[in-house]
Amino acid sequence: MTYKVAVPKPVEKQLDKLQGTVYKNVIKRILELKDNPRPPGNLSDDPIKDIRTVLEFARSVVNKDRLPCRLWSLLT
Questions:
Q1: DSSP-derived secondary structure letter, 29
Q2: Residues 29-53 pLDDT 10s
Q3: Angle (CA) 18 58 70, round 5°
Q4: 3-state secondary structure string, 30-46?
Q5: What separation in angstroms does the CA of 46 have from each of 2, 26, 30, 59?
């Protein structure tokens, strides 16, 4: 089963503040949630610095139409 990931406005603003590799790593992990919304392991050991963003996505209601354009470029 594949899930969709919603991007609430406050999360979009947080993502816009991220730069380069950090942004790509966070987006990659967020997009992985669509296939496995509850990945194994301990999130506190994750190298992503702002884990709150990932957690907010995991709790979000799904709405593909709200994905920012920067996310779509990583999907293709």
A1: H
A2: 888 888 887 777 665 555 555 556 6
A3: 35
A4: HHHCCCCCCCCCCHHHC
A5: 23, 11, 13, 18
